[in-house]
Amino acid sequence: MTPSGNHPLFEDLETLFTSTVDFGELSRQNSSLTSLLNLGSHYKEFVKQSPDDDTESSKSNSTTRQVLPFPNSTIDDIKPSDSLFSMSHQEENILLKHFFKKLLPLLDGHPSSPWPDLALKYCDFNIARSCFISLACMHMYECKEGGTEYYVKGVAHINNTMDHLIQYINETTTKIKLDGSSSYHMNSDEMAKTHSSSFVILVLMNVYILFSVLEKGKSAMARYFFEVFGTICQDSTFYENVLLTNDKKRSLLVVLSWYDTVAAIVSPDCRLPCSMPEWYGTITDSISTAKMMGCPGEVFIAMSEVCMLRHEKHNGISSVSTPSQHQKRYEDIKYRLINYREYVPFATDQGEEPYVSRLKCAACWMSAVLITLNRVVQPENYSEMNQKIVHEFINTYGTMDSKSPLVTQMVWPVYAIACECKTEDERTALLIYMETLYETAQMGTLYSLKEIVLKVWERNITQEEYLKEWLEDGIDYLPV
């Protein structure tokens, strides 16, 4: 497999993202591939030609969501076959339009999400296409725009990408020491090849996590992939020479750190994140979690420290020896959280949400982390403190536009706050938020989120207690 970075399409992907022209009509024109601004030529190479090109594009009709004939199946239970990969030009056209137009804006808060461009530049062309099609199929199934056949096709395509991901991991981890040491000892050609392979791994991991989020929000492989992600990015030469030198590439580091940290903070076994604190970015960085999904990196750093506290409490260990040191640690994290305003710049970059919206978003994330911190440390009167935080969250979140990209990324905060709701009024408000979030984004993880929260309320148990029952051993929940 060789990267396809020199294809003309990769130089002008934005055209494909934003065009509303008839792709089928353009693809019939024999345009030169060297014309970078000609969408027809790009699309002709992106979607294979078919005799069906002369027919009208069929519209995707809404269908009633069907019960799968294999309700307990997993991704690995569905074996790919040629028939699952074959599709007409029109069907592929519909899927790609759905991915770029409807799904992509929901996957993060960046005004022009960088990762599809990275997938096309660093992955084999057909693998990149499988990435997009797998996600589109699963989302169309979840949106009830396609039946079981879309689910099965989506699984077949994600299996195709996972085969290549495992291959790349096996090849690359033999070259990089698993203790995270630098690859400086390689010659320049070996290093370039290893770094390219490492980046392909990050791209395909991102796709796998997104697919899991679209499906049910449950994953048996996520934890392993996060561990590999942490190992790769702790290689100092890869981190410094590849990730830090390019904002698009660094965005993938930021996004995977976001997924990893959220998965860690909800894990019933209280695992630690595989991400390093500096990977989230801060207010002074050109790329950060704030740029990608709205939550300041400084709040994510505090979240990772809460993960450490959860881990220590769960395992009966502590990095401090006295109660006063423990209290000081709590106060330090709390102080940095309540100073969230300091992490939101007043100036608004092109494509960003207005300052007030970004400030409210930061406040909501801060509230979710603070309420979790209080649950873990349990300071005096923490139940009353958390009830106050619930009301503050409701009054802040409720004033935000439900279709804002900042709100559609606020999955874990809604989950964390909802699990703390005690009164009927609180639960009614969060139920509305959960249902609206699902109606807006229509992803499987949001359906699972509501299921978990309702069980927590019904049985008056903690989220961790229910997740221990709901998740089988080795399975992680991904509320992202």
Automatic annotation (TrEMBL):
Compartment(s) of residence: Nucleus
Organism: Candida maltosa (strain Xu316) (Yeast)
Region (Disordered): 48-73
Ranges of compositional bias, category Polar residues: 58-73
Matches recorded under InterPro entries: Fun_TF (IPR021858)
PANTHER family given in the database record: TRANSCRIPTIONAL ACTIVATOR PROTEIN UGA3 (PTHR37534), ZN(II)2CYS6 TRANSCRIPTION FACTOR (EUROFUNG) (PTHR37534:SF46)
Keyword annotations of the record: Nucleus
Protein name: Uncharacterized protein
